[in-house]
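Quick note —
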Amino acid sequence: MTTTVLAIIHAGLAAAWVGGMAYSLLVVQPKLKRYFGPDQEGREALTTVIASGNRWKVVGLIVAITVTGLGLLAITHAHWWIHALKGFLLLCATGIFWYVSWRHWPSRVFATAAELPALQRRLILLASTMLGLTGLAFALGVLAVQL
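Predicted structure written out below.
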């Protein structure tokens, strides 16, 4: 029973992270670009408002995913190597998140109009990479249960 509840919590948290990134990258960002068109300043202002205050929520989510994942690994050691690979992928995604949160965003907030397009493209690349890493980790978790 404990394993099932912990697995549901872990999978739900992971789905929230993957789903949140996918929604932002595939729905919100394209709509902002279409809505604001050439108005870079307006787009940046709304993007900043949307992103404001989310950093620590995501950090909490990552911590909770880590704790529940380690808890599951402590209960059952089956296919531990898959979970180690998942952990590595999530660690890489967390590193990218750290860079985006504490390096990229401050650069973007203080960027000139000429610097914004390159920073926006870089964010799409970084976000896509994070989504790919977390999505693959999620898929490996599903695979581990099926083996």
